Amino acid sequence: MRINKFLALAGIASRRKVEEYILAGKVKVNGKVVNNLSTDVKDTDIVTFENRTVRTNANFVYYKLHKPKGYVTTVSDEKDRKTVMDLMRGVHHRVYPVGRLDYDTEGLLILTNDGEITNILTKPNSEVNKIYIVHIEGDITKDDIKKLSSGVDIGDYVTKPCSVIALSASEKLSKLEVTITEGKNRQVRKMFASIGKNVVLLRRIQIGEIRLGGLSRGGYEPLNAREIRYLKSLKK
User: Fold this and answer.
1) Once rounded to an integer, what is the mean pLDDT over residues 44-60?
2) What domains, with CATH codes, occur in the chain?
């Protein structure tokens, strides 16, 4: 098994992230630093990450969190801001957030120690639906919705076609449901900025078949059996 896959399966981080750790010299096999991403690991090898022995994790855990505004989606923060891990203090497994929600965005976040699932859900071509509720200042027109649905230039990228549904609209505030299959940095906010609209609330309510439901802000719970089966189906 390749070293990056081994570390991801062990729950160290996503495959892309563990590749950074390998190249930084943080991984050893049988006491020797390896920074070749094609290194194969055998059952008899002893693998360490930051001098701690790593074993593949057969006991994966999966949680969903209702991230509030004012938290960063990282394990630690160099600016000493609150992180989503501060909300997970009751979880005794070492879990990691899957993807990111920016500081001012709230809603559904999945956390797990399953590195393979993290890699699947965060890779650019995953095609997993992500559904958001968006509140914007002012009205929204049919032409605006057509532009957003067709794909817009957000500066360094043209978004893929997506679903945009107006739930309510008025001169002061409009509410929409937006479904995208990508996850570019601040993508939804940039999409609305491209048509001159300011987002005042952004909440992710669904990832694939996993829904936020009635989870309160800052609350978390383990995924149920159906939700876990769905995640595991993505590995096929």
Assistant:
1) 81
2) 3-54 (3.10.290.10), 62-125+214-233 (3.30.70.580), 130-207 (3.30.70.1560)
